[in-house]
Amino acid sequence: MSPDVVRQRIERTFADVPRPPDDRVTGSFGDEARDDTEPFKGRDWRDLEPDLLDYYHYALVWFTPEAFHYYLPAFLLAGLNHPDAIYVVSTLQLLRPNEDPALDPFSRARWQQLNAEQIRAVEEWLEWLLGQAQPDSYFADEVREALQTVRDRYWWREPAEPGPGKP
User: Fold this and answer.
1) Residues facing residue 26 across a β-bridge
2) Rounded to an integer, what distance in angstroms lies between the CA atom of residue 83 and that of residue 76?
3) pTM of this prediction?
4) pLDDT digits (tens, 9 = 90+) for 6-58
């Protein structure tokens, strides 16, 4: 798949996502969270430069679910031009299932914002990214794991209810 086809799908499927109000961009407390998300406030995701995304790649974890949904396409699109950028790695890591059950709701709240077309756009981005990676590299393994997570719809499923006698 060509990067232009992936770009068009991302742009189309995220075009109508509303920008969160400035007071709903940061989902965490503290100076680091505020500092990393401040440059995004009031900005359109289509106008964010790769250098800003590179420098503030931790914003992905500090965003509210609404801000994550709104700004995610900027990170995906920039990754088409810079597949080895740190913000690409940050996005891949956010797709990894959590071993800490306390973090599961955090991730679900973000990824469950996406509709079926947006999920497919992420999947196509990952497929393209995998085609750019050296087949036996650690990076290719990261992309494969993220792609499997998306294909399994891990984040989009409701967590399993514990059975009788289970916590």
Assistant:
1) 63
2) 9
3) 0.90
4) 999 999 999 999 999 999 999 888 899 899 999 999 999 999 999 999 999 99
Alpha carbon separation from 69 to 13, 72, 108, 133, 141 (Å, rounded): 11, 6, 12, 26, 25
Closest C-alpha to 18, from 61, 84, 67: 67
Cα separation, 92 vs 153, whole angstroms? 15
C-alpha dihedral sign at 128, 10, 117, 53: positive
Question: Using CB atoms within 10 A of its CB, is residue 122 exposed (0-12), middle (13-18) or buried (19+)?
Answer: buried
Please tell me the distance from the alpha carbon of residue 113 to that of residue 93, in angstroms, as a whole number: 18
- Say if CB 103 and CB 28 are below 8 A apart: no
Residue 38: what residue type? E
Which residues, 6 or more positions from 6, have their beta carbon under 8 angstroms from its beta carbon? Answer: 80, 121, 124, 125, 128
